[in-house]
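Consider the tokenized backbone below.
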């Protein structure tokens, strides 16, 4: 699947002239946790999330000054923190360097952006830089929940075994030369040796996810650990 398959579109966004309070009200009214910021041409210029609004002077949650923090972070960081908690214009507190993707980006790449950057959503832009959608972690979870189980597909026993062995051979931990796999009427029997309980579970997981498999019988034996 690709970003275009799960993205939310159109996107609830705010303009560069919006205030912090404007965006906060939008989040509450629309029940969203982030608002992309666009210019008059609809180009993405930044994003504001709930995290950007937590430490605010209006509610007394701004970060307190401390001399040791000043020593560690310096004037620039302290000044940025002050702007973050006191500024009224949304452009003063938004994140400008936004991780984005295009509609054809595979979901595996979107998931990688989530993990490597510690973010929860990725705006989707076209080649012109126009904001056309947004993908959040929740959108991917929704796709998982609504996906058609591939095990409903009917395959012959030989085809099931072939697909299973092909997938196992892709995994460096599987060591297929230690395995004996049989398939009868859609039921997979796993025989042989697994180096650890984790490898055993992984081999089982590969098997149950092959299209056409009705059940998996795990007869694998964990290899003994020899201490010399």
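A designed sequence for it:
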């Amino acid at each position: 699947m690709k970003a275009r398959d799960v993205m939310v579109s159109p996107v609830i966004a705010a303009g560069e002239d919006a205030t912090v309070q404007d965006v906060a009200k939008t989040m509450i009214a629309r029940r969203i946790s982030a608002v992309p910021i666009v210019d008059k041409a609809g180009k993405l210029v930044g994003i504001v999330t709930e995290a950007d609004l937590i430490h605010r002077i209006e509610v007394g949650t701004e970060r307190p000054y401390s001399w040791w923090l000043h020593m560690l972070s310096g004037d620039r960081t302290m000044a940025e923190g002050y702007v973050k908690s006191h500024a009224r214009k949304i452009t003063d507190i938004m994140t400008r360097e936004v991780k984005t993707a295009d509609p054809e980006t595979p979901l595996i790449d979107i998931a990688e952006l989530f993990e490597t950057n510690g973010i929860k959503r990725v705006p989707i832009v076209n080649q012109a830089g126009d904001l056309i959608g947004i993908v959040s972690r929740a959108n991917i979870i929704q796709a998982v929940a609504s996906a058609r189980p591939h095990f409903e597909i009917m395959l012959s026993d030989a085809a099931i075994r072939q697909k299973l062995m092909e997938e196992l051979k892709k995994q460096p931990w599987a060591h297929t030369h230690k395995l004996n796999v049989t398939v009868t009427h859609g039921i997979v029997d796993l025989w042989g040796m697994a180096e650890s309980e984790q490898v055993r579970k992984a081999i089982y997981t590969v098997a149950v996810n092959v299209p056409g498999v009705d059940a998996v019988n795990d007869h694998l034996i964990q290899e003994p650990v020899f201490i010399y």
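The chain has seven helices and nine strands.
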